[in-house]
Amino acid sequence: MALVTGAGSGIGRAVARALAEAGWTLALAGRRAEALAETSRLMGLTRPDSPAVLTVPTDVTRPEQVDALFAAVRDRFGRLDVLFNNAGTFGKAGPLEELGHEDWRAVVDVNLTGAFLCAQAAFRVMKDQDPQGGRIINNGSISAHAPRPHSIAYTATKHAVTGLTKSLSLDGRPYRIACGQIDIGNAATEMTGRMQSGILQANGQMASEPVMDAADVARTVVHMAELPLEANVQFATVLATNMPYIGRG
């Protein structure tokens, strides 16, 4: 079975739907219960409490809520095979010198601390279950490689996710826990609407950017999830073909 965080919208919702179509049993986590219920409906389930899906409203920045999420998964399904560690936020964009401490913390708490808390909880379950092992797939970003202007908090956390992925991969080896990362560029979601309307470029100009269907990302996550534990996609980059990434700046 698979757990998807940030499953109430965007990439998380697209991945949940793709995993369901591939026959996976799922747990869906996100802050808004109504959004999780809508994801369940779009997966073709008439009830969010269907035996094939568990919905758990969760704030990944709260350790006690993360612990409750993974306890609920273990109690319902008995094991966890895949975590798609997806919950994240862009945060407030603006000049570095104007970024407030609380704005910085808000991004770090979700993108880095939340990802760590979920990975740690998944690691504990996967290490202790029988058969032992599982897979963690972290949602990185193109910004794990190259920044956009006025994105220091988001960019720093996504670079840190890469370190998280590498450490999880190394520490998971003795326990058959694989960890990989998918770096996504300009998937069409609620969070990326500004890409098409015009966004600041490294040369100081505003430009509209191409986007891709989030379902194209979801297919890659399903592929990563379904590999045997003897194989791993360590890093995958999926992006809109013509987005300004190669040669950014």
TrEMBL record:
One of its GO terms (molecular function) is oxidoreductase activity. SUPFAM superfamilies: NAD(P)-binding Rossmann-fold domains. Pfam families: adh_short. InterPro entries: NAD(P)-bd_dom_sf (IPR036291), Sc_DH/Rdtase_CS (IPR020904), SDR_fam (IPR002347). Gene3D superfamilies: NAD(P)-binding Rossmann-like Domain. Keywords: Oxidoreductase. Belongs to the short-chain dehydrogenases/reductases (SDR) family. PANTHER family: 5-KETO-D-GLUCONATE 5-REDUCTASE, BLR5618 PROTEIN. This is 3-oxoacyl-ACP reductase. It comes from Streptomyces lydicus.
